[in-house]
Amino acid sequence: MRYILLLLIAGLIAGCSTVKHSDELLAEPVIYTARDNAANFSDYLTFYISDTIGLVDGDHPDDSTLIGADSKAVVDQIKKNMTDRGYSFDASLDTGTDLGVSVTLMRNLLDDYYYGGYWNYYYNPYYYYWYGWYGWYYPYYYPYVIYVPTNQGTIIIDLVDLKNAHSAEKFVVIWNAIISGYLDANNNINLQRAVEAVDQSFTQSPYLKH
Amino acid sequence: MKKILFSICILASTFAAKAQVQQGSSIFLVGWEIGIPLNNDYISETSWGGGYFDWRKFVKPNLSLGFAMSFNAFRQYVDTKTYVSDDQSTAVTTRMMRYQNVLPFMFNTCYYFKAMGVALPYVGLGVGAEFSDQWMYYSSFTSSNRDWGFVARPTVGAILRLGEDVGGHVGVGYNIAAIDNGFTDQNSIQYVYFQLGLSFYSR
Known about the structure:
The structure holds two protein chains of two kinds.
Chain A lengths: L1 H14 L6 H5 L3 E6 L10 E4 L3 E5 L7 E2 L2 H16 L3 E2 L9 E9 L5 E6 L7 H9 L5 E9 L5 E8 L3 H4 L2 E10 L10 H13 L7
Parallel strand pairs in A: 2-5, 2-6, 3-6, 8-10
Antiparallel strand pairs in A: 1-10, 3-4, 6-9, 7-8, 9-10
Chain B lengths: L1 H18 L6 E12 L9 E14 L2 E22 L5 E23 L6 E20 L2 E20 L5 E12 L11 E14 L1
Antiparallel strand pairs in B: 1-2, 1-8, 2-3, 3-4, 4-5, 5-6, 6-7, 7-8
């Protein structure tokens, strides 16, 4: 009987084996990508991307862009991946540019966001950006539902179809990457992690090529 | 040494006569259960944190009917991996913790063989419903799924009568429940379980 009791106690201890706690996982990056199934990515050749990153920051609601070395490093990495996939960077955004790449950083927000169909463009500083250049007043359109968990900070990369925007009368986001978990303890960008996440978002999207 | 062996033989023969249970009496079993997954698309690691409760009424000296429940807590850390949707339109790369708690509730019947020393061996079958709660943590995301399904648990084991009203219990069995995983193509929960516990007699 004594041995059975000892074995039962041993079992209870074994049952309490350590696991990776969810708090630790909060710091882990998650890279989500989605595509418009109707889009043919080889139909596009040129793309434009700004040197700045759009910013939606709950602690600094008046700031709408992020500039500096971190911003440039993320943008350069996206530019490199796009070029590696056969697209040409068009430094002079004009009506002949096929794709617009918008990058938005969302942080310090209390609520998560679900998007689908027509996006609430007030949260995207680039809505006005494309509008400013094109003079069109078209909304962003996601052909799929995306989920943005803003409490951990999120980088959103949108690949916008400018080539067909006029005929479609909307800015269709034909590819989208949502990168979460790239902030450090001070809520700043962990640059190494962000750059790796950008690379991973392209790696898991093999269809994204000219 | 001879004295010790002689004492053990006397003790075993004393309880051997009592290992057989009388008709009308009942046994309550409680103890520790280990689960080893057999279909492991979702979780392949052994659950060391399980338990069981089992009450049996002897309708004949060699046959019991009763009710049992058990639980197992499966969990597994999965390192960075890319998951792609069936239509290839979406993909997600992440590390995650996977959890699955299972609770089968069953009516069972057991057939008992002739007592062997202090051991009363048996074969049995439990059928009922199993509840499964499974979820995954990845970064700030949580995906969860809960479901019920039919469960069957064939088992073999032995009740060990080590005292007048109390003893031990060992068992091994196979759990199969018709429950969709929800996260993978896995449409059943299957695992082998091992039980080690105590038995309590009442007349």
